[in-house]
Structure formats: structure tokens, C-alpha cells
């Protein structure tokens, strides 16, 4: 299986493709295919990088 979020490092911003209501999240860690992201409107969530590909956010507003 492929790690769909391998490019993410702590501090990067991302959106969940199926949960736009969560807002923008900041990556806390990326270890062994588990990505911990603190979403503005949802809190801290652990993402399985082998199932869900997050969308990177580069300007903090998109």
C-alpha cells in the first residue's frame, strides 16, 4: 500500500477531502502512515494515510 500523505511534515496545513466543515488543520506528526492533524473546527484527529489523502493548503485560506 502507498502512504498517500508522505509529503506532510509537522507544521504543514491540510484539509480533509470529505470533511470541509473541519476547516484547515495543522499537521502535528506523521509516523508510520498515521498522520495526526489538529483541525480548527474539529480538534485533533488521527488519519490513516493508506486510506485518506489529505489536501495540502499553502496559503492558509483555501
The 3D shape can be described as globular
* First-last Cα distance: 29 Å
The radius of gyration over CA amounts to: 10 Å
Task: Spell out the helices and strands N to C.
Answer: EEEEE
Count the E strands.
Answer: 5
- Provide mean pLDDT, rounded: 93
Share of β-strand residues: 35-45%
Order of adjacent strands in the largest pleated sheet? 4-3-2-1-5
- The helix tally amounts to 0
**Which structural class should the secondary elements be placed in?**
mainly beta
The tally of domains stands at: 1
What can be said about the biggest beta sheet? 5 strands, antiparallel
Protein name: DUF3553 domain-containing protein
Organism: Sulfitobacter mediterraneus
Pfam family, one: DUF3553
Provide key terms for this protein:
62 residues, mainly beta, five-stranded antiparallel β-sheet, 5 strands, globular
Amino acid at each position: 500500500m502507498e502512504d498517500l500523505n508522505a509529503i506532510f511534515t509537522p507544521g504543514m496545513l491540510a484539509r480533509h477531502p470529505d470533511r470541509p466543515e473541519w476547516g484547515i488543520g495543522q499537521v502535528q506528526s506523521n509516523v508510520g502512515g498515521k498522520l495526526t492533524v489538529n483541525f480548527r473546527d474539529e480538534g485533533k484527529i488521527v488519519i490513516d494515510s493508506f486510506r485518506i489523502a489529505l489536501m495540502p493548503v499553502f496559503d492558509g485560506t483555501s
